[in-house]
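Structure, all two chains, one model.
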Amino acid sequence: MIPIYHRRRFVNRFNMTFSVLVTALGILFLAWILGTLLYYGVAGVSLALFTENTPAPGNQGGLLNAIFGSALLTLLGIGMGAPVGILAGTFLAEYANTSKFTRRVADATRFINDILLSAPSILIGLFVYVICVVPTHHFSAWAGAISLALIALPVVVRTSEDMLHLVPNDLREAATALGAPRWKVVVRVSYRAARAGILTGVLLAVARIAGETAPLLFTALNNQFWSSDVNAPMANLPVVIFQFALSPYADWQSLAWAGALLVTASILGLNIFVRMTLGKKQRG
Amino acid sequence: MAVADAASGRTAAAPPFRTTRSSGRVGDRLFYLTTLSFAILVLLILAGIMVSLAHGSWPAFHKLGFAFFYSSTWNPVTEVFGALPPIYGTLVTSIIAILIGVPISLGIVIVLTELAPDWLKRPISTAVELLAAIPSIIYGMWGLFVFVPFFKAYIQPGLGEILSPIPIVGALFSGPPFGVGILTAGIILAIMILPFISAVMRDVFETVPPMLRESAYGLGATTWEVVWNVILPYTRTSVVGAVMLGLGRALGETMAVTFVIGNSHDISASLFLPGATISSTIANEFTEAVGDVYSSSLIALGLTLFFITFVVLVIAKLMLKQLASKVRG
């Protein structure tokens, strides 16, 4: 055969083999991380994990206060972030083409939103520290929830806009032709048609903020005891994991692994659930 | 006007109709203004971050001046702070992440778009996307307790032996194998940014008209030649955008890096030695910082990170703009 053909075939085979190998490597890393979590995490899972608060070093205990804190912070965060995000997304999808002014605002918002989407979460934490913690002179669950809301916001804006864009214009036109005012068209027709998609976006945002650690380090801080006071520091899983994992105590480290398993299992579970329900309608 | 009509109640049929229209008009205005103000709020958040960080870092810049950016002293006792080591660490770990992450992402995208049979595409892409869903802190724990010992025992000594005799490059891979360090942080960052780069790259690859691809195959090009000579030149700008997006992620990544970088404020030539990044320094020291200048210096580090990532992400956005218009039509 002609030598150049040999070379081309070799280059092709080499690069394709490389591609397959690195893909396998990527999946191997996922399996390795999940395997590690199961191996160390399952050992730490017990009933006490859900019934007792975080212990002092060397004592037995669980993660009850941290689980509660994380759930509350995530709930408050999404409760503030989602409505704002959905309404901003509504503007981008439904009102962007009304006039020159709205088009400019929409373009700028899209641009900035995409930047916020990838902005380092630790900067959100610093920002909330400066605007919430410094004026009040203390760390609080509120500050933590606000920083989580700011991280959830761009995710919700993006998905809400995309999902509203998928609603066929015929539906809007039909409703308008029947005499419905614009806001009713949006609320009764567009929202209803895009409901599943918007909910998906909110769930993805929950998955995104549930494991966030950096922005909570200097906003919600941590609390070794049970606390449901939103004006005081509150325990939360990510920061407890951070603190316990880097501690020299075996009990704490084992709790950190159990917490890590808990967080990852819920987040991946949520992601897979969303994918499965959405997968029926869209490409994965 | 409509309200007046309704109040006078001239006909039986007209009022309900008119009232609906008038409430429609007020409702429209209200709803429009609400959505508009939330859209503007998104804009204000970014401005707010910038202003508040600038405000918070003022005491540090006031005391330390421009030396903050090029000094490498970090001394909380004498309150002299220099940002050079963390800036260096941030850039070097991110560059390592890109050097490792981009070829792997390209490989994954080639598998997903050209090689894998249809029934395998979904599981592979889901697995890769799940890598993005795992929280940063989990990467950190896995990195410190599992990857670092493995890397230290099996990879690092061999890597050092093979590469350290080479001039120049050797200096990067010399020194004792600690396990933790800049290289380890870079590798873990590479795994973390894989899903972001490959997801965007895959979308980009799908904008290539099938006609181009099929023509090349028709001329007898191999799969690699189609990717390298047709798809990549066609999508060049957007691919660079995807890489920049990954870079933006890597620059600001905090928790994973904090676990494995070793946290040292020294700049060393070897990638095996510990270092620090901007975000790891903030995460480690912020709650313990006493004194205005110390905490203000950490906020100033945050401001520096803000500007670096902002520039990178803006470039990424601009390069991906073509893609957006192609996809949105």
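The mean pLDDT of chain A is 90.
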